[in-house]
Write a structure and sequence with these properties.
2 copies of one chain form a homodimer. By secondary structure, the first copy, chain A, is α+β, with helices and mostly antiparallel strands. Chain A folds into 3 domains: about 30-100 and about 115-325, Glycoside hydrolase, family 65, N-terminal domain (Beta-galactosidase, Chain A, domain 5, Distorted Sandwich); about 340-745, Glycosyltransferase (Alpha/alpha barrel); about 765-834, Sandwich (Maltose phosphorylase, domain 3), CATH 2.60.420. Helix content of chain A is about 25%, strand content about 25%. Chain A is built from 19 helices and 42 strands. Chain A has a 10-stranded antiparallel sheet with strand order 1-2-9-10-11-12-19-16-15-14, with helices on one face. In chain A, strands 6, 7, 8, 13, 17 and 18 form a 6-stranded antiparallel sheet that branches. In chain A, a hairpin with a 4-residue loop joins strand 14 and strand 15 (about 190-195).
Chain lengths: ~850, ~850
């Protein structure tokens, strides 16, 4: 069952009912100011950091759900009298009012959301977006009277302020109920309500909610606005038709503006609401610091400036157009015409859009990530880069520097860092032994995309300690060296606290209820090994050697040093590869790990958890077993034992009991999450592995099985948005197979884009140029991929002929790597047969 | 304005409307299992620890407020058919339904709450309580058909499960939405729904919600029960009249039982709902661990046993009677007949009840303390003891041991500890230099109450480290010694991170937005001093010396050691006292402190924060200045400069700007909290100080100004419960003077009971016996106080004659200390004139 449709020409998913199985959301904002917005107007805004600088309040896991965010009320009034009463009230976003609408559409676009609604012949269109380089969300509301009579329409817009730190805001009430402060400013043509809680003391930032109109009145006290026992669906002032002009002192400050519109038949009027965030220099905090009568009155100048940039419809239209143009340009970087509209829309729009969002958010703020716990992940963000780097390489570069700056001198890393402070998160700590190698993956992707070797000599500190800076290349060396120096009894890398599968905790042995597996003491005795990290080392160790060989000279290494270092790493790779192929091979698939007792994990000798997905994907991606049938055998096992209609499960059979020696993985009910769920992140690894093994039908089938556009018609079962990936789909052993959870913030976004763009469509940046090798099933015969790479547009026409050739400007290449033009050529025509 | 009335004979506050200004709550439970319950049925339950073992989910600061806790729905059905439809539905607790009731009463009693409601001629009475020594909340629901027709009434009872750790439950959704698990058990005469999330793994505890009846059906999935967009006021299954028999797999597990009752005219039927908590031994977790078909099926035997103890009306009545008897016996420990019903009800019922609650909860779980952050406070709990020790000295003894076990070897202390683990809370840390001395106060109160000197030789560890145990007396010595060894330039004790006023942070200099003043680096340079701690040292140092002199021998000290130790401490007291009277005296009041630059805080030389309440109260309580007029002068300044109709403010004038050298105190808006609010905790210090200075009218007036019963008729302004204290009332400089906040968990409870019982009514336990010295205003002429003290009942008849005498059995004592009988006398008649 579907709840909407794709509008590819507008780059939108058009939701046709508010009653989606779950809120279906979108992200507004690109750099510092972000908003989440659901198809019923839910969500919240924050500046840079969803924990430390939350602007509006949002209640997770609430009843009723998804209420109290962008609260707009359209009240058809019985007259234009001062004491007019509402005949009926509804929300242009459906919620919070819940009043049935005569028509409803929510267009989730690329960086904007549009709500179209109608009731009583009043048509409304609410457009929400965050303009480029702007710390504000714009909500433009157009209302049209399609009736034959004039109408009086009261429009009330409101937000609820979060007292900045989202954790404190939801726990420290004995303090917070006394701190709230606001200011109200009524200009002749605009009304601004300021949230200045704690500005009195150490904060140098405030927020405002403004409308480009005088108002009938306002409210800033939530209790006054809602009245007793009411929800956001039925505020007292809305029912009464009268605002209270309340001024909040502590308790729960909000901002509510009420504007009265008179609309002639056929007339349209527009209002612009702006939710803005302002930072001021310490010395500029106050309006008039020397005037005792003005103590505590904030400096509103920068708010006025920001507001006046969007005070007219023309300004707002221009800003939205600018945003659209920006995205159009970004998305030209990679596009395909494949003849399959689902593939095209995912590749050309939604995969890349989700990659931008995961790059921006890491795993911090979604409708499932509360924005209170997790910062930017070392592992996560490196992987997110893989799908993002082609869009804005400059931001990827900065991210790499930020990530590497949290690495320790021994090559290990903080597992997460807080985006506002960029410091390692001591609550989580480190010890995840796969983390360092992901830095190689991220840097390699950046180099392949840009060829910008200057990043390798960029001075980068350890653990953010000033003075500890070394060139980035040295960080890579330490990453690789960390694995080399942390191997176990079988010569396979030690797993540490955990590897990519955070929940496989082989050194933790937690027996205390509720204890976090992420932070419980890590009793690494040097025994527990990860075959998965073994595969990673072969893959990313190899990338490191390539980087050295390509760019070592530029960084000041001598040829001899380069040769010695590369040879050493390749020798280590050979050893690990050998260990993986022997101790790491179970007969029909790769073993997952060795536990702290040096017993196999992921083996046919066990009754549960016999086969895990991760080593099959990663080892084959690293090329292990491609030459001797092990890869094909492992992939066959994946298909036979892990794959169902909904995708490929993480392991099977799921664990029915808790196994203290395995940790969190066995804590989940069967079929969910890491215990037998379809953990989408690693499905593209299997697709890539199949592509590398030339299993082209299966490679694409793996991609297709849980690709949103292809399973859109199962939205009633999957529940999550049909335009983006979710973290996990309940596996075949779950009571609710196919049910998706934790949408948006998942490494699936980046890995899927890598899979489909670089392996299935087969246009892959390398250090030497653009490699082209499509792996597509029979139905694809004729495609065009357009790729902007290092400033050059490659127009790649692909035709199925049965023979693999790559020609540039009519000339056939020896291999499949299209070199970067050395002249100022801006367009390269590539003809590919396959 | 009032919203109810006191029913003293029933020991109840009877709330007459659901529309109280804020939820007015009560506490159920005495030892391990606790519930909060508001006058509209809100609240939640937990076992021992509101953070780590929360049983039901509660949403703080929610919209709509106070919903979704105890959800009972009475549905008048149109027939007894299987597909009968509801004619109307309401809640016997008003919320969540909000359906208007024909009559409503909520009786907040001592350890129980009763809701009486009526609609459509159906009268309901819901009685909620936690039986003694039982890990369950009982909800007995009686429904009576007062109409002339038979009716069909569907009763649905429901709770929403919290996934145990309240912090994780409200943040870690990417995990928690996949972990929820339940079991449903339908017996012939009962229905039990089990919440077993994470029992699969490390937990050995589960909860259940049961009813002593077969059911029409059940629900365990919140989404199924509520349906889309609905709140707890209008669940879909309630509107439909049909449950879904849903089984939750992850997402949001609840328990909902629906029972159908047929009531003849005049007939009453009763249902008993039990919310129980079960812990099992590890080896007893499973029903049949060897049967593969029963994997994961929990051992329900202990739940059956618990449930069957309360499965009949007779059993429930007996348990409630037992609870009432228990309280009647407790409250006989101290009672008064004064001729003033307000004084009597507060002393005889509500002060002592609140003391029990603050003893149990410290500052962890109320409607303002979210139960997620704060554990048991070292300072808080010692003070809470002062008002509780007479009720159950044995529990006070254990608490003292628990508190002292978190002390460090140098005498300093963790500021808080977690009740479940009893370990110091590293998130908060230590360095609050008043903390150690409060241990002396607590132990002295215990000794005075019980004469049980064996506590002094009890081995007690430092920082909970096994093997570090020393006798408790040694802990006291180190407490006192900590102050002796931490004095500043003026010979006044150093303040450290902060003293009682957590928000006066003289060594923190925080400039980072949102940084916690409690945990920011403490840059104590040995300069900032606290006159308040000076007063404390004089008072509690003296108590320590008394303890040594009284009991030193029993602990093995020689007479010479005792004399030397006592002399040394008294000499130190003399020095500190001298320092306070010189450097600590501002001319008309005591200085509050010296800051890190050695500048006075709380001085007429400043324009704001000229006078603080704390040193005036504490220094005079310590006896400083009583002999030379300073005490009278200080108290006059308190009255003139800090006191208004609502009570005595903490300081004046309030700070209008942030002062980095003072810290959090200046962060609040003027008139709120520590910045000029009436911080109720220290008002009794002023009352005691006035009593000691023989200002009897003012001593009582201070008590009266913010004593709940005396200000009941201002409930519309105060907002908080009129039967217990709140932490803070907005001060005269606030925009909302008189508005109360943070009710229930405040040291005001203990200190007020100390004040009124020991100083105003003047019956004070001492190491030597019961001292009697009333300080009452003119209107009190004839009173009787009954006090059970060390196993003996003292019946104390007091008469105003103008002369102070104390006679026992007709014989006048030389002093005012009634000695403890050395024979087995159980009743002592004391005659007092004043």
């Amino acid at each position: 069952m579907k709840y909407g449709h794709f509008d590819d020409s507008a780059r939108e998913y058009v939701i046709e009912t508010p009653a989606t199985p779950l809120p279906w959301i979108n992200y507004l904002g690109n750099e510092d100011f972000f908003s989440l917005v659901s198809n019923t107007g839910g969500g919240y805004s924050f500046y840079k950091d969803a924990k430390l600088r939350r602007i509006t309040r949002y209640r997770y896991n609430n009843v009723p759900g998804d209420n109290g965010s962008r609260n707009y009320y359209l009240s058809l009034m019985d007259s234009n009298a001062i004491n007019a009463k509402p005949i009926d009230t509804w929300s242009p976003t459906f919620l919070p009012c819940k009043t049935p609408l005569d028509s409803y559409k929510c267009r989730q676009g690329i960086g904007y959301t549009v709500f179209e609604a109608a009731r009583h012949g009043i048509e409304s269109k609410l457009t929400a977006f965050v303009p480029l380089k702007t710390n504000a969300e714009i909500n433009r509301l157009d209302v049209t009277n399609t009736t034959d009579e004039p109408v009086v329409l009261d429009v009330t817009g409101s937000v609820e302020w979060c007292l900045w730190n989202a954790v404190d805001d939801s726990s420290n009430f004995q303090r917070n109920l006394s701190t709230g402060e606001v200011e109200i400013e009524q200009q002749s043509d605009a009304t601004l309500i300021y949230h200045k809680t704690e500005f009195k003391e150490r904060r140098n930032h405030y927020a405002f909610f403004a409308v480009n109109s005088p108002v009938v009145g306002f409210d800033t006290s939530r209790d006054e606005f809602l009245g007793k026992f009411n929800g956001w669906d039925t505020p007292q002032v809305i029912a009464e038709g009268q605002v209270h002009d309340s001024v909040a002192h502590g308790w729960f400050p909000i901002a509510a503006d009420r504007v009265r519109l008179e609309l002639e038949p056929g007339e349209t009027k527009s209002l612009i609401f702006v939710l803005g965030y302002i930072e001021v220099a310490k010395e500029d905090k106050w309006e008039d610091p020397d005037n005792p009568a003005k103590v505590g009155i904030i400096n509103k100048k920068p708010a006025h400036e920001l507001f006046r940039r969007f005070a007219t419809v023309e300004q707002v239209e221009a800003a939205l157009k600018e945003l659209n143009t920006y995205w159009t340009e970004l998305l030209t970087t990679y596009s395909v015409e494949s003849g399959d509209e689902k593939l095209d829309r995912m590749v050309n729009i939604w995969h890349q859009y989700q990659c931008m969002v995961t790059f921006n958010m890491s795993r911090s703020a979604s409708y499932y990530e509360s924005g209170m716990g997790r910062g930017m992940g070392f592992r996560d963000s490196n992987q997110d880069l893989l799908g993002f780097v082609h869009l804005i390489p400059g931001r990827a570069r900065q991210r790499i520097i930020d990530i590497a700056s949290t690495q320790m001198e021994d090559g290990s890393a903080w597992h997460q860092y807080q985006p506002l402070t960029k410091k390692g998160n001591a609550d989580i700590g480190g010890g995840f032994n796969d983390d360092p190698l992901w830095l190689v993956a991220g840097v390699n992707a950046y180099l392949a995309e840009t060829g910008d070797a200057s990043i390798l000599t960029e001075p980068v500190p350890f653990n953010n300690v000033e003075g500890s800076e070394v060139p980035l290349l040295e960080h890579l060396r330490r990453s690789v060296n960390f694995t080399i120096t942390h191997k176990g009894p079988h010569g396979i890398p030690l797993i540490g606290r955990a590897d990519w599968n955070d929940c496989l905790n082989l050194n933790c042995f937690s027996d205390t209820p509720g204890e976090s597996f992420q932070t419980v003491e890590n009793n690494d005795t040097g025994v527990a090994e990860s075959v998965f990290i073994g595969g990673m080392f072969v893959l990313y160790g190899g990338q490191y050697a390539d980087i050295i060989e390509h760019y070592g000279q530029l960084t000041g290494m001598t040829d001899a040093e380069i040769a010695a270092e590369a040879a050493n790493v390749r020798a280590e790779i050979g050893q690990v590869s050998e260990a993986v192929e022997t101790a790491g091979w179970d007969g029909e698939w790769f073993v997952r790990a060795y536990d702290a007792y040096s017993r196999k994990v992921g083996t046919h000798e066990d009754t549960e958890g016999q086969i895990y997905i991760e080593p099959q994907g990663m080892c084959v991606m690293a090329g292990i077993g491609l030459d001797d049938g092990k890869a094909q055998q492992a992939l066959k096992s994946v298909k036979d034992k892990l794959t169902c209609d909904w995708g490929t499960a993480i392991l099977a059979p799921a664990y029915s009991t808790y196994r203290i020696e395995l940790g969190e993985i066995s804590s989940y009910p069967r079929g969910y999450k890491e215990n037998g769920g379809i953990f989408c992140h690693n499905n593209p690894w299997i697709s890539i592995a199949n592509a590398l093994a030339d299993n082209n039908e299966e490679a694409f089938a793996v991609y297709q099985r849980n690709c949103p556009a292809y399973v859109e018609d199962k939205s009633d079962i999957r529940k999550v948005e049909p335009y983006v990936y979710c973290q996990m789909v309940a596996g075949p052993e779950a009571p609710t197979p196919g049910e998706g959870k934790n949408s948006w913030l998942t490494g699936t976004a980046a890995w899927t884009f890598v899979d489909v763009s670089q392996y299935l469509l087969g246009v892959r940046p390398t250090l030497d140029g653009l490699a082209i090798e499509p792996h597509l099933p029979e139905q694809f015969t004729d495609l065009i991929v357009t790729r902007v790479f290092r400033g050059v547009t490659y127009r790649i026409a692909m035709k199925r002929t049965g023979e693999r050739t790559v020609s540039v400007n009519g000339e056939r290449l020896a291999g499949n790597v299209v070199p970067v033009p050395t002249d100022d050529t801006k367009l390269v025509e590539v003809a590919v047969t396959f």
